[in-house]
Amino acid sequence: MPIVVDIDVMLARRKMSVGDLADRVGITPANLAVLKNGRAKAVRFATLAALCEVLKCQPGDLLRWEGEDAAGG
Fold this sequence. Notes:
Layout lengths: L2 E3 L1 H8 L3 H8 L3 H8 L8 H11 L3 H4 E3 L8
Helix pairs in contact: 2-3
């Protein structure tokens, strides 16, 4: 998929665990793992906004587009 999720990068920068982020955002650690590992088919804007609020970042810090050439396809 050409959309890459960089939540793990922001977690490392903020020295925060997945469980702590999930608690603060109000989603289950399992659902956060699905999003973090790029297996999610969609993300609600409310969830994206909550992630940005907790991590003090912009949506572009969490999501980026990699074209087919960059992904090797």
